[in-house]
Amino acid sequence: MNVFAAVSAGMALFLALAGAAEAATIRVVALTGQEAPGTGGERFTGFQDPALNEAGDTSFTYFITGSGANFTGILTSGVPVAQSGDAAPGAGGAPFLFLLNPALNDAGETAFVNIFFGGRSSNTGIFASGVLIAREGEVAPGAGGAVFDGLDTSITFNNAGETAFLGGLSGAGVTSANNSGIFTSEALVARAGNAAPGTDEPVFLGFGRPSLNDAGETAFRGFLTGGDVTSENNQGIFTSGAMVARAGDAAPGTGGAVFSLFNDPALNNIGVTAFFGEFIGAGVTTANDSGLFSADALIVREGDVAPGAGGAVFGNLSAGAVHSPLALNDAGDVAFLAEITGTGVTVENDRGIFATEGGVLDLILREGDLLDIGGGDLRTITSLSFTPRSFNNSGDIAFRASFSGGAIGPAGQGIFVYEAGSVSAAVPLPPALGLMLFGVAALGFVGRRRARG
User: Fold this and answer.
1) pLDDT of residue 406
2) How many angstroms separate the CA atoms of 33 and 27, rounded?
3) Bridge partners (DSSP) listed for residue 163
4) Are 270 and 233 within 8 A, CB to CB?
5) CA–CA separation, 365 and 385 (whole Å)
6) CA 88 and chain centroid, separation
7) Residues facing 327 on adjacent strands
8) Using CA atoms, how far apart are residues 424 and 432, in angstroms rounded to an integer?
C-alpha cells in the first residue's frame, strides 16, 4: 500500500470511528494574558478554581497586573461582580481587599469571601448576592451572643440564596469546648459541645467544611469527644440531623474493613452524600486503604485500575488532604481529582480528573495531556484543579489548568469547562495513525480524547 492509500485508509477508519463516538469538548473561559473585563485594560495573571451552575456559567477569582488596591476580582458569566478597592456593602465603607472562592447558583447569583484591611476582629466577611452575610466580630446566629472569631474561606451556596460555612466563636459563654460551629446564612446548624446525632453520649469537638443543598440541608465531617469515644471512633460524617458514617463502622465493599478517618463530604439535592474515607482491617494494606463512598457503596478503591490511564492504578484517594476536591450531582455522579501510580506514570502525569456518568467511571483529563487553548494552540497540562462547586447535573466540570509554553505565547493558566453533553468528532487514535493525522487531531479538543460507549 502506498503512502496515499495508507493515509486514505487511516482517514476512513478515523472518520468511521468518529461518526460512532460520542465525546465531550472543552470550552475555554479565560486565559492569562487576556484583558480582564472592567479593569481598564489590565490583563489576567492568574486564577482561583471556578464555580459552575446548571446553565454552564462560571464564576472565579482572577488576579491582574494592576498596581494599588485593585489587583483581584470576581467574574461571573464574564461580568465583574466585585473588585478589590471597591466599597464592600454593609461593611461601613471598608473596601474589598482579597476576594476568594466564589460560589454560583442557578439564578446567576454569586457568594464569596473577602479579607478586609484591618485587624483580626473584623478582617473576613462572607457576601452573597451583594449582601454581607457574616463578618468576624459580628454576632453569630444561635450562639447566645457569641461573635464570629474566624470564618473559613470556603463556603457553599444554594439556589435558595443560602450559604453554609464553618466559623469560630469568641465572647459570651464561649470556652475551648464550644468555640466553633457550622452555620448557614440565618442559623446555627451544629456547635462544638453539642450532642452529635446518631450517637449515645459523644459531643462535637470540631468540624470540617460543610456542604449545602437546595433544601437547606448540610453535610459535614464532625470530630467527637466524650462518652464512648476512642482514637478509633472519634470522627464521622453527619447531615443536619443524622450520622451517615462513623470511624469504626464497617466500610461497605471492603470485605469487612472499618472506617478509620474521613475527608469533607459532598451532598446533593436528594440527600445523598459522597466522601473519601480511609479504613483498616483484614486484607487492608497501605496500597488499598482508602476509597470513595456514596449512597452506602464503594465507588472506587485505592489500587483499582484507573480508567483511561494505560494500566496505572489509583493512589491514596484521600491523600491526607483535609479538603479533597470531590463533587456530587443530583444524578448521583461524582467528579474528583486523584493521584495515580504505576505503569507509565511520572511526576508530570500522576494526577487526573475522573468522573462517573451513569455510574461508569472515566478519565476526564490528565496532567501531561495536550490542551487546545484556542486556534489549535496545543499546550501540555502541568496541573489541574477544581472545587466541589465545579460540577453540574449535566456532568459538566469547570476546572483550572496550568500549562507549559507553546507556539503562541508563554506558559500560563486558564479556566475551562469540560462539556459532557456536547458532541465532538474526536476519538483516541492508535499511535501510528495519530502521527499520520496529527493535523486532524488538533481540531479543538485535547490530546487525550475518549470515546464513550
Assistant:
1) 57
2) 17
3) 157
4) no
5) 11
6) 27
7) 335
8) 22
Amino acid at 380: T
Q: Are 242 and 198 in contact (CB under 8 A)?
A: yes
Output the nine-digit C-alpha cell for 306: 484507573
Go through 274-294 and write b for each residue having 16 or more CB atoms within 10 A of its CB, e for each that does not: bbbbbbbeeebeeebbbbbbb
Q: What is the pLDDT of residues 240-294, one digit of tens each?
A: 889 999 999 999 999 999 999 999 999 999 999 999 999 999 999 999 999 999 9
The single residue listed with the C-alpha cell 497586573 is 65
The cell numbers describing 16, all together, are 468511521
Nearest to 277 by CA among 312, 326, 241: 326
Task: Name the residue among 139, 294, 141, 161 with its Cα closest to residue 216.
Answer: 161
Angstrom distance (rounded) from CA 63 to CA 80: 13
Query: Region 25-35: what's the mean pLDDT?
Result: 94
The amino acid present at 265, given as its one-letter code, is: P
What is the rounded distance in angstroms from the CA atom of residue 156 to the CA atom of residue 290? Answer: 26
- Burial of 232 from C-beta contacts in 10 A (0-12 / 13-18 / 19+): exposed
Predicted model pTM = 0.86
Q: Are 150 and 176 in contact (CB under 8 A)?
A: no
At 47, the amino acid letter reads: F
